[in-house]
Each structure stands twice: as structure tokens, then as C-alpha cells.
Specification:
Layout: E1 10-16, H1 26-45, E2 49-53, H2 69-78, E3 92-96, H3 100-103, H4 109-116, E4 121-125, H5 132-142, E5 145-150, H6 153-164, E6 169-172, H7 182-190, H8 196-199, H9 208-214, H10 223-236, E7 241-245, H11 255-273, E8 277-279, H12 292-301, E9 305-309, H13 315-327, E10 331-336, E11 350-353, H14 359-373
Parallel strand pairs: 1-2, 1-5, 2-3, 3-4, 5-6, 7-8, 7-9, 9-10, 10-11
């Protein structure tokens, strides 16, 4: 059986319904909850994982829950048996604050108790923050894909966080609030001009704009068809990007060694095993921007990881490496064994690759270093003035 491209990718479903029933009818809310439930079941079967807040279950005057978080928790707990063998843990990254344990609804206490004590759940506490924005930052840090429905300013804040990190933002146009707020506002923005490709990028011949039109959910569209179209989109989302900084001049004496290393070691591991897509800007690709420097730094800025090979000691490579480090991106420094580093690179652990040895031995050394530094903290952590 072919493994889904969503296997191991962490999905963050966010949003809420308007308190005013005239802005979100009972029928539309019921349809939205059915969409979320069917979608979560589908994602679980495909081996995806989740980011879910832990909070109270607030309701509006008609008794309908305002958020979808406990629906997602409950659906996961009831359908764990459908999860494919070998799907990685944690299944859920749970983000909570100091009051959450006392606010868990009685009807979901058993669900939370069973999951929180298992290896399936990784709890991230934002107890030291008093701001919702900081808790959302924690959620966005762990998520790979944002799916938004309804909501207001919080959805817009999360969408901006995901976009700035180069992660897909998928808005749904279920009518759960005023047209100019939350996911509805993002959806309408995406339909304007070429904005859809700023929300997400896909592989294959169908444009992001066409996909956004395809996942539209008018009232006459069934839940089954709605989730099918959304699931099809999720399957073709472009993989997370690994931006490559490296020697690109074929006349340089070190070029062949660098090219052979990336062909034999880096690409098979990063793309074939870890699920990243290598991004190289060498002038041979279609440009999204008018200038090559803008193309380079925009794609570097919104990459998930950076692979910076300084073999050949090219000035542009150090400029891009410095940007990646200043941006706080996970950065792997590479160089052919014997390369003379500038003095201030010595203290930053790097992988010194060889041109000899079997391909598998060289890949194993690369994997070992990747696993050692992939979670390395940034050189200068971003810390607010006032927590």
C-alpha cells in the first residue's frame, strides 16, 4: 500500500463559530462539525498527527460549542484503531496553560486522561504566558499545515505565523461568522489575483487558485464531497522546503565534489527519507520575483530548514548562512573535509563530509549529524521584553 504524503505531517485545525446564531446557523455549524469529524478520521487513517489546544468547552446560547478542539480530541480517541502501523509519535502536540486541567469539560475528562498519560501525546505548556498570542505561537511552532474555519483575529494571527514560516494555510469557507473575518476573509483573499499561491503551493498541474475553488463548500455540497476535495488538496501540497546554500559555479575547482555529494548523499536523505524538498536558486527555475536576490532571500526566509555548504568559501554562501542563522532557522553547516573555515564558524558544529567511502556510509554520517543538530536552538533566542 502506498504511504500517504500526509504520513507524519502535523495538522493544526483551528477556528470557532460566531456567538450570534444569525451569523452562523445551527445547520451550518452542524455541517462544519461533520466536516471536521470526517476529516480527522481521514487524517488519522493516513498517519497524520495533530496540534490541538487544551482548553474549556465554551458554548453559545443555543448550547453549541464555539470551538472544535474537543470534537477533534474525542474523534481521535474513538478512532485510534484506524491509525496505520509505524505512524510516528507524538500523535498530538497538546498546548495548554496553567488553568487548563481545571477547565476540561467533565464529558471529556476520560478522553484527556487516557491520552495525556500515553506516549501518543506531547504536552507543551504555555503556563508562563498570559497572552493568547504566545500560546498560538507555540501551536504554530509545532504545526506543519494550518486548516482554518470560522474564527476571527486569532485565525488571522495564526495564518500570518504559518505563512511567515513557509507553511501552508488552508482556509475553509464554511459560513461560521461574518464574511470579513477569520477564515472567510483569508479564503476571499486567496481567490483574488494570484494570492492563492501565497497561502499554499502544490505539486502537479493544478494551480493553487484552482484548488481553492475546488475546496469551496457551498450549502448544496455534501460533507463527503467536501472532505474528499480537501483531502485531495492536502495530498498534493508541496513538501516542506529545505533551502540549499552551496557552490553553484560549474567552473569552480570544487564544484564537481559538491555536486556529487548533494546527488549521492543529501538529496536521497532529505527528499527520499525525510520528506523535504530541496530548494536551489541557480537561475534555471521559474522566478516568482523580479530580482534574483529577492528570489533567494524570500525563499530562504520561508524555508523550514537550511543546508549551508561553505565548500569553496564563496561570499554569497556566507551572506545566506548569516541570514539563516539570524532568522533562527534550523541550519546544517556543511563543508568538504579539509575546508579552512573562517574563525567564527569553528564553534558552530558542522558536518565535514568526505569524497571517499560507500554511499551508504556517507549517508549514515550525514543522518547522524542531522539528528544531532536538527533541534539545535537558535544562536539568539527571541525573547519579549515583558513576558
Amino acid at each position: 500500500m502506498v504511504r500517504s504524503s500526509l504520513f507524519g505531517r502535523r495538522i493544526h485545525i483551528t477556528g470557532s463559530i460566531a456567538a450570534n446564531a444569525s451569523a452562523a446557523t445551527t445547520e451550518e455549524v452542524a455541517r462544519a462539525r461533520d466536516v471536521v469529524e470526517v476529516l480527522v478520521k481521514d487524517l488519522l487513517r493516513k498517519g497524520a498527527s495533530f496540534v490541538i489546544p487544551v482548553d474549556a468547552e465554551k458554548t453559545r446560547s443555543d448550547g453549541l460549542p464555539i470551538c472544535f478542539d474537543w470534537l477533534i480530541w474525542d474523534t481521535i480517541q474513538k478512532n485510534l484503531h484506524t491509525r496505520p502501523e509505524g505512524a510516528p509519535n507524538p500523535l498530538v502536540v497538546a498546548v495548554k496553560h496553567h488553568k487548563n486541567e481545571d477547565q476540561i469539560p467533565d464529558q471529556f475528562a476520560g478522553v484527556w486522561g487516557a491520552l495525556r498519560s500515553s506516549a501518543l501525546v506531547q504536552i507543551e505548556s504555555a503556563a508562563h504566558w498570559n497572552m493568547n498570542s504566545k500560546r498560538m505561537e507555540a501551536q504554530a511552532r509545532h504545526g506543519d499545515i494550518l486548516i482554518a474555519l470560522g474564527g476571527g483575529e486569532g485565525v488571522l494571527f495564526l495564518a500570518n505565523l504559518y505563512h511567515d514560516a513557509g507553511k501552508p494555510v488552508i482556509p475553509l469557507n464554511l459560513k461560521l461568522g461574518p464574511a470579513n473575518t477569520g477564515a472567510l476573509r483569508v479564503f476571499e483573499y486567496g481567490l483574488t489575483g494570484s494570492n492563492a499561491q501565497r497561502l499554499f503551493q502544490t505539486e502537479g498541474g493544478t494551480s493553487a487558485h484552482s484548488w481553492l475553488n475546488r475546496i469551496e463548500m457551498p450549502a448544496q455540497k455534501t460533507v463527503t464531497d467536501s472532505v474528499r476535495d480537501l483531502s485531495d488538496l492536502l495530498e498534493v501540497l508541496a513538501p516542506p522546503k529545505a533551502f540549499v546554500v552551496r557552490l553553484l559555479n560549474p567552473t569552480h575547482a570544487d564544484y564537481n565534489d559538491v555536486q556529487e555529494f548533494f546527488d549521492t548523499v543529501v538529496q536521497p536523505v532529505m527528499e527520499g527519507e525525510l520528506g523535504y524538498k530541496l530548494t536551489v536558486v541557480d537561475g534555471n527555475q521559474a522566478y516568482d520575483h523580479a530580482r534574483i536576490d529577492q528570489e533567494i532571500f524570500t525563499k530562504l526566509h520561508r524555508s523550514r530548514v537550511v543546508l549551508a555548504d561553505i565548500t569553496g568559501l564563496r561570499p554569497n554562501c556566507f551572506l545566506e548562512l548569516g541570514y539563516a542563522l539570524g532568522r533562527g532557522l534550523p541550519t546544517m553547516v556543511l563543508a568538504r573535509a579539509g575546508t579552512e573555515h573562517p574563525f567564527d564558524i569553528y564553534s558552530l558544529s558542522g558536518h565535514h563530509w568526505k569524497t571517499t567511502g560507500s554511499a551508504e556510509d556517507r549517508r549514515r554520517e550525514f543522518r547522524t549529524h542531522w539528528n544531532a543538530i536538527k533541534s539545535r536552538p537558535p544562536l539568539v533566542p527571541t525573547e519579549p521584553l515583558i513576558p
